[in-house]
Specification:
The protein is mainly α and 81 residues long. The radius of gyration is 17 Å and the shape is elongated. The protein is built from three helices and no strands. 78% of the residues lie in helices and 0% in strands. The mean pLDDT is 83. It has one domain (8-76). It has helices at 8-33, 40-50, 54-79.
Length: 81
């Protein structure tokens, strides 16, 4: 499915991690920083419906970001040789 010679672990996993981190950060951590009180009911509501549509968006953004970052880093390393 993916070209593993390109480095599956070097950009796929960090991209997915970044997407999940941004999803959780923007749906749970930012409201707490703004002074909202987060209850388990509110967490359940946020994670099951109200904001769940943003998870695939953040996953795609994380993958795209890590892909281009990986390409830029490997290209930079090849130019130095």
């Amino acid at each position: 499915m993916f070209d593993t010679s390109f480095g599956l672990k070097t950009w796929i996993y960090p991209g997915l991690f970044w997407g999940v981190f941004m999803f959780l950060g923007l749906t749970l951590i930012l409201p707490v920083m703004d002074g909202e009180i987060i209850t388990w009911g509110k967490v359940y509501t946020l994670l099951t419906g109200e904001k769940l549509y943003t998870l695939p968006i953040w996953l795609i953004i994380g993958l795209v970001m890590q892909y281009f970052l990986h390409k830029w880093i490997t290209k930079k390393g090849k130019n130095e040789r």
